[in-house]
Amino acid sequence: MTEDDFHRTSTQYRLWSFTPESLASIRATTNAAAADGVRAAFRSLKSGQNDGRTDRDDVDSDNEIECLTIEEEQKIVGAFASETMDLVDFCNYPTNVKATAVQYMKRFYLTNSPMTYHPKEIERTAVFLATKAEDSFHHVKSLAEKLDVSTEAILAPEFLLTQGLRFTFYVRHPFRGLEGGFMELRAYANGKGQGGPLLGKSAKVIREDMLQIDTLPRMAAKPKTTRDLIARIEGAHHESKQLLKTSALLSDAYFLYTPSQIWLSALMLIDEPLARFYVNTKISPESDIKVRLITVLQECGHLLRSSRTGQPDSEEKKELKRINKKLARCRNPQKMDLVCMNKAQKRDPSRNDGEGLDENVAKKRKLERAQSMKEGEDLFGPSIQKAG
Question: Which is nearest to 195 in space by CA: 271, 278, 130?
Answer without folding.
Answer: 278
